[in-house]
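Quick review question:
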């Protein structure tokens, strides 16, 4: 037995191993195949996969202007050329780098310790873009001040916590049609890609056009007019070509399944952009460039959080702030809930209804993370899809999440490095993350127009209006109008005029199959009236309970990388899944 096996055995048989349900710990529903050293490796993989959020989130949130005041002029309405204002923005970016690392550290510890899930949490991509560009506005040009927007995020986190405690959060997520929920994630992916293609927080491939709104850009700064539109020399910007190089590098690394491909691509492009003598330098010989370079040379330092910590202003009189609050609440419900369910299913600890162990604790931890994020000046936190990289490495318990938190703790002391990642380095990561979020489009029910058209509206309206809220509202309203009219015609004609319902998505079966009340309320009720306590009413068969599976769910075997049920071909399984989905709104577990 080597030292690795010795460590795994000792940890598994300890109280720590029992708490985290490691294999061999003797814990109830211990997670088969889990090892302490494997969890550490998985946590490191997840951290490297999502560490890009430190610089990307800081770049996006600082674009809001934060506490900085822009003295606009007709020649410079958004202070893009105001040196004092840009220095203030840079100082806020330094604060946000520290804050993002601290938020991710606290959030990942919470989800690991209290929910025992191998997930990394941090300020969410998409939500930070909505916070900056829609709520506060670029350099504060929106209808809501930065401090008021943070107050809205804080209130959202408190509401989030109450909804999680009383089980309403899970129910709200279930009543939205599946096609809309999937389309919303895809639309956010398109939104992130659009941001990554622009110059403010991306590679600058897309530029302004006064006639068509957008066009091919990538011209040097000296070839732009006063509005920022290219007057010529498109595709001659060295920064854009560096961003394209980073994009290609990340894709190649991902194809070879290299852990941390996003971070490697960002770091490579950043390092090549640091020398001041190159044409692609991030530190030009200007006043702003010199300020950034002086901070970069510190390498290791701890930056104060004077400009972002506890910056609240509870002015809730404007209509815009309530729209932002509701949008934050609902988008976060769907985004985080969908990610958690997806990662739990990927990890193999979901039950036959799609629920997962410690789901209530996970939702409460996420709500507390939103509150923590608001206190540190950032947009809402969410679970990251990059957690799948760690799960693929064997992570199955909260030890993975705690390892992720440790990685963010170390990064706190290296904020000068993370502050020096240029937008053309992080923009390629935004494009890649957008493509990853678009992968869910295959799960939209394109066979039935009543499901497909609202989903398509949701996806397209988000990037075209530069608003997640408008996309979500457009999708829900179009679904209600289209299917509501069909329902009225069906009832008015006594069923004689109706479309082909066989291709319709049956989402309501799953939505209303579970009790609305959470388990702890039913427990208190039964305790008060003297009824038997429903200890196992909500307990379903998990993947770790394979020996208890009944005849209604045939066992799955893996042949050539495809999941096939015993005695059935892959084609038969596909037909069976399709039939079951249409009839009951669910798939067989595989």
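Suggested answer, residue by residue:
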């Amino acid at each position: 037995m080597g030292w690795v096996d010795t460590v795994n055995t000792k940890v598994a048989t300890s109280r720590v191993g029992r708490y985290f349900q490691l294999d061999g710990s003797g814990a109830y529903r211990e997670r088969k195949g889990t090892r302490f050293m494997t969890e550490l490796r998985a946590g490191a993989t997840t951290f490297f996969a999502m560490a890009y959020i430190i610089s990307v989130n800081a770049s996006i949130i600082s674009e809001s202007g934060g506490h900085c005041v822009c003295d606009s002029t007709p020649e410079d309405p958004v202070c893009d050329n105001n040196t004092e204002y840009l220095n203030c923005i840079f100082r806020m970016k330094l604060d946000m780098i520290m804050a993002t690392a601290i938020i991710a550290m606290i959030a990942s510890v919470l989800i690991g310790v209290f929910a025992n899930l191998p997930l990394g949490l941090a300020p969410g991509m998409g939500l930070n873009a909505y916070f900056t560009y829609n709520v506060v506005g670029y350099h504060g040009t929106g209808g809501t001040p930065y401090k008021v927007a943070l107050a809205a995020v804080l209130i959202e986190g408190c509401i989030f916590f109450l909804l999680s405690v009383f089980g309403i959060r899970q129910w709200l997520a279930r009543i939205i049609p599946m096609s809309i929920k999937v389309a919303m994630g895809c639309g956010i992916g398109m939104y992130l890609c659009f941001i990554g293609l622009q110059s403010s927080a991306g590679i600058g491939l897309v530029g302004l056009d006064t006639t068509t709104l957008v066009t091919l850009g990538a011209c040097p700064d000296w070839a732009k007019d006063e509005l920022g539109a290219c007057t010529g020399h498109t595709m001659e910007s060295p920064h854009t070509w560096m961003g394209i190089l980073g994009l290609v590098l990340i894709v190649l690394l991902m194809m070879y399944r290299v852990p941390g491909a996003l971070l490697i691509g960002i770091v490579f492009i950043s390092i090549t952009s640091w020398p001041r003598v190159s044409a692609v330098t991030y530190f030009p010989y200007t006043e702003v460039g010199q300020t950034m370079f002086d901070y970069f040379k510190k390498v290791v330092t701890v930056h104060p959080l004077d400009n972002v910590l506890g910056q609240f202003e509870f002015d809730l009189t404007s209509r815009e702030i309530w729209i932002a609050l509701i949008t934050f609440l609902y988008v976060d419900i769907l985004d985080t809930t969908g990610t958690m369910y997806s990662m739990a299913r990927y990890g193999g600890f979901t039950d036959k209804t799609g629920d997962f162990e410690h789901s209530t604790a996970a939702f409460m931890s996420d709500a507390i993370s939103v509150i923590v994020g608001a206190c540190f000046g950032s947009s809402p936190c969410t679970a990251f899809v990059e957690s799948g990289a760690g799960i693929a490495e064997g992570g199955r318990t909260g030890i993975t999440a705690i390892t992720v938190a440790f990685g963010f703790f170390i990064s706190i002391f290296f904020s000068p490095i993370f502050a020096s990642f240029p937008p053309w380095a992080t923009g390629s990561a935004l494009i890649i993350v957008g493509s990853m979020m678009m992968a869910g489009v295959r799960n939209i029910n394109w066979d039935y127009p009543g499901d497909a058209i609202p989903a398509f509206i949701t996806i397209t309206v988000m990037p075209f209006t530069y608003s997640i809220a408008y996309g979500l509202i457009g999708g829900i309203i179009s679904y209600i109008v289209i299917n509501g009219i069909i329902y009225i015609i069906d009832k008015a004609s006594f069923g004689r005029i109706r479309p082909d319902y066989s291709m319709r998505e049956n989402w309501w079966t799953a939505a209303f199959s579970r009790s609305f009340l959470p388990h702890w309320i039913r427990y208190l009720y039964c305790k008060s009236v003297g009824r038997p306590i429903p200890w196992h009413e909500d307990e379903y068969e998990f993947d770790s309970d394979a020996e208890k599976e009944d005849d209604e769910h045939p066992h799955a075997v893996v042949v050539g990388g495809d999941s096939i049920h015993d005695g059935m071909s892959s084609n038969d399984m596909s037909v069976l899944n399709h039939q079951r989905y249409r009839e009951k709104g669910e798939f067989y577990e595989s």
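Why it works: The longest strand covers residues 206-209. The radius of gyration is 25 Å.
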